[in-house]
Amino acid sequence: xxxxxxxxxxxxxxxxxxxxxxxxxxxxxxxxxxxxxxxxxxxxxxxxxxxxxxxxxxxxxxxxxxxxxxxxxxxxxxxxxxxxxxxxxxxxxxxxxxxxxxxxxxxxxxxxxxxxxxxxxxxxxxxxxxxxxxxxxxxxxxxxxxxxxxxxxxxxxxxxxxxxxxxxxxxxxxxxxxxxxxxxxxxxxxxxxxxxxxxxxxxxxxxxxxxxxxxxxxxxxxxxxxxxxxxxxxxxxxxxxxxxxxxxxxxxxxxxxxxxxxxxxxxxxxxxxxxxxxxxxxxxxxxxxxxxxxxxxxxxxxxxxxxxxxxxxxxxxxxxxxxxxxxxxxxxxxxxxxxxxxxxxxxxxxxxxxxxxxxxxxxxxxxxxxxxxxxxxxxxxxxxxxxxxxxxxxxxxxxxxxxxxxxxxxxxxxxxxxxxxxxxxxxxxxxxxxxxxxxxxxxxxxxxxxxxxxxxxxxxxxxxxxxxxxxxxxxxxxxxxxxxxxxxxxxxxxxxxxxxxxxxxxxxxxxxxxxxxxxxxxxxxxxxxxxxxxxxxxxxxxxxxxxxxxxxxxxxxxxxxxxxxxxxxxxxxxxxxxxxxxxxxxxxxxxxxxxxxxxxxxxxxxxxxxxxxxxxxxxxxxxxx
Length: 625
Description:
Number of helices: 23
Largest sheet: 19 strands, parallel
Radius of gyration: 26 Å
Distance between the termini: 19 Å
Number of strands: 19
Strand content: 5-15%
Structural class: alpha/beta
Helix content: 25-40%
């Protein structure tokens, strides 16, 4: 492994370069890359410190820093216009550091330890803000948000165009909710709310008499410029859908999800009548109606094929349709969607309990060119449906989780898709033989793979996957009883190409409750293996000292040990050529910590020093490759 630190001769050569040239080159990098370069020599470190005072964008995606580590990276900077950070280790004391008048874009995830003061301070200081994302605000016990905080936010951010509030806003008083939203920016085109009651939504958008107004005074339409609306509610109802469809005349994206606590009555449910009201102005391009079964087994029982037929008449120009929980809809309804929406590129169906292979029988006869298909909990689908579906050769995302009748032959067909990036097979009937088809697909560029809950998948299948050198960055294989230490050793030794280190492509690895895992696997999770790993799911009954030692060795690794769903939020969809490329040694952590975490735990013996591990590594890699 090459030494990341510059030699004295190299430092002298860097010293001869003009400071302006160095700064120009380094400004092409993102923050993580700037920190990586800064860790190599004093000259680069000085240059990085200077750059951080004028860079326009500060995006640190999946590393949650404390205020002590974050403060040096965020010096006073009047040119900072975009700030995106994970606030899991921050609280109200960091507000002055994060909230700046120069910002046009602010994205703060995991704000559970912040109070409503965060909202009011943003409203008071960020008058030019265009984009705002706030996640999990005040979710920690003892924190609170008041309606006045929301009022100050909406009243102060008059230029806001995109607003995402990923927390429960139903805690606000109903009688003040609509009044406060009347203050929202007229430029607001996109609104997403983590949770709100359907009644509050209906009251908010209804052109009714305003509070403290005479009966002849009808309140002006609220949020008239909204193009995209994404809400998670208690119940999706005819009343709410009808109000949204009538009030938001420019709507192009409608995304509704409910999570009922009890089986809804007809007045609090969606029926064929409600579906018929959708897309009254004919501008809708994306529609998502999902009923979650998080608390109880429940469906949209009052919608059938007739409702889908009535909706399809108005949805010919739809590009994306997601339907979850429509248990009364049969092949007739789903086939109507495929044949009515000629521009459809994204289809998602979950809990389609009557969906069969016949829907996709004549896919090649349609003009569809779908790139994203999700068919989750559709247990009547067989390998024949997938063989027809892959006629869409431009598929990039294929989600077949919990389709229990899909087997190895389905994966043989899937392996022919040259543009596939994400493949989710959780709960299907895939075995080692099926996974071997991925090895034979030389054109496959798979980045995300979910093979969880596969009882017939063993270490042999993962060995085959490792040999394929597919550049997977997200791998989930939880609840697989035949997966053990050998799989971790194979993945740790996997090389996507000759220029990268072992296991270098994985950023998320979920091995929760895999039957054959022992303490040996954890030694292979230590550096220098898996240098890009940021999320790890393990079993809680593993020796706690082992997990704690791993946390000390990799302080920025997010370790979940209770079965939590792991995920990396895609905060930034840019495809910049200069994004951070993690090497075998993560220089970002090195520069931030400067040796603060020296691992002296006997349970995590260095793989390069321990003769036993070194011997196993040599023999295993020789056998693998």
